[in-house]
Amino acid sequence: MSISNDHQAPEQTPPTPSQPAQFRMVLVSFLSAGVGLVAGVVAYALYKLIGLFTNLFFFHRLSADFTSVRFHHLGPWVILIPVIGGIIVGIMAKYGTPKIKGHGIPEAMEAVLVNRSRIAPRVAILKPISAAIAIGTGGPFGAEGPTIQAGGAIGSLVGQILHTTTVERNRFGPRKASATILQTKSCFDKLL
C-alpha cells in the first residue's frame, strides 16, 4: 500500500545571493595602502604646520621646530593668541567650507554613513591647515580627528577619480583611520 501525498511542497532551490558589488580586492588593497601612506604624510605635515604656527604666533619666527610656549615674550598679550587663531579658523569655515568645523572623526563617519563615502577635496586641504592654526595658537584640540578627516578626503578623492564603488571606498576607511592615528601618535610622541 503506497501512501500518496497530494500536497507535496514545491521543490525549493537554494537562494541565490543578490548581485554583490564587484569587489576588486587586490586593487582596493593597494589603494588602501597608498591612501594610508599619503595620510601618514598628511599627519607629518600637520605636525610640522602646528610647529610653524606655534612659532609664528608665539615667537614671530619661521620655524617648524617645536619650542615650549612657556618661553614666549608676549607678557599678558599672550591671551589674545588663541582668540586670533579662533577668528582665523572661523573665517576659514565661513568662506572655505563648513566641513572643517568640529573634531573630524564624527564628520568622517557622517561622510561614510550619509554621503556614500564622498568628501570634498578642499576638506583635505583646509582641515589640516585650520587644525594646525587652532592647535598652534593654543587651542585645546588634538590632531587625530583632523588627520583622519583629511585622510578620508584623500581616500574619497582617489576613489572618485578611479570610479570605485561605495563599498570599495568604505574599505579605505579602517586603513585610513588606523594609519593616520598611528602616524599622528608617532609624530606627537616625538614631542615627549
Written description of the protein model:
The chain has 192 residues and is mainly alpha-helical. The protein has one domain (25-61, 76-189). It contains 6 helices and no strands. α1 packs parallel to α4, α2 runs antiparallel to α4 and α5 packs antiparallel against α6. It starts with 24 loop residues before the first helix and ends with a helix.
Describe the biggest sheet? Answer: none
Question: Helicity range of the residues?
Answer: 55-70%
Mean pLDDT: 74
> What form results from the Cα inertia axes?
elongated
Count of extended strands: 0
Secondary-structure content class: mainly alpha
Provide the number of structural domains. 1
- First and last CA, distance: 90 Å
- Series of H and E elements: HHHHHH
Number of H- or I-type helical stretches: 6
Strand content: under 5%
- Low-pLDDT runs of 5+ residues are 14-21
Radius of gyration: 24 Å
Give the helix/strand layout.
Blueprint: H1 25-59, H2 80-95, H3 105-113, H4 121-136, H5 144-161, H6 166-189
Helix pairs in contact: 1-4, 1-5, 1-6, 2-4, 3-5, 4-5, 5-6
Task: Give a quick rundown of the structure.
This protein has one domain (25-61, 76-189).
Features:
192 residues, single chain, 6 helices, mainly alpha
